[in-house]
Amino acid sequence: MRLPTLPIDPSVVHGAFLALGTLAAVIVFLAEARRRRTLDDRLFTILTGALLCGGVAAKLSTSWRYLAAAPDPTLLGALLYGGKSVLGGLAGAYLGAILTKRLIGYRAPTGDVFAPAVALGIGIGRFGCLLTETPGTPTGFPWGVTVGASRAAHIPGFPPAWIGVPLHPSFVYEIAFHFAMLAVLLRLRRRPDLRGELFKVYLLAYAVFRFLIEFVRGNEVVWAGLTRSQLFLIPSTLLLAGYFLRRRRPAAMGEIRTLEGTL
User: Fold this and answer.
1) Which domain holds residue 138?
2) Residue-wise DSSP of 52-105
3) What's the total number of domains in the chain?
4) Domain for residue 39, yes or no?
5) Does 4 reside within a domain?
6) Tens digits of residue pLDDT in 152-177
7) 23 lies in some domain
């Protein structure tokens, strides 16, 4: 399947899907907070802090590209032209929510409210990436997509040798992942043992998935056959996995003590 040539500026298309994804995420966040009866002014403040920090981090985490190309780089230029990173945005939004909660003294967990909203928002936003960025690396699978010369001319860094060659639709894989995770998260929210942990569950699942999908994304390899995203994901995944292992250990010890008490 050949991806269509866009009749308008690709940056407009990308921005439109980003805005649509953000709007959908905010709506789901508010609906979930209302369902849990936790919606108040403080939650609006936390949402605002997460969105602002996520947006800034998404831009600054890829500012190295702007700094390498701009003859006279500025902070404003980095924010306007530095590109965007989903991983940087997620990390920034997470830290922004934590900092905002501490500033206003909000102690209740909010990850369960954020998780389904973020999954839906990124899933929608990735349609913009599919239409405006390099789909992936060459593939022999029948579902590969091709990019024509006219469309490739509007994709920064698109390899000329890949024009007309079937490529992995890596963003389709990611869209499917995020929508599937939305369904999983909505189901897991009923489990009392995961109360307050859904966002970390989502982050761990996405970290593992994203690490694997990077092999067909076509991003620049920088060290030991790995991309910058993969190098960031290795410590992130280990930290999240370690958190759940530590969380599981007290529960397992409690089960053992309960069993001993019945013998």
Assistant:
1) 10-220
2) HHHHHHHHHTTHHHHHHH-SS--HHHHHHHS---HHHHHHHHHHHHHHHHHHHT
3) 1
4) yes
5) no
6) 888 888 999 999 999 999 999 999 99
7) yes
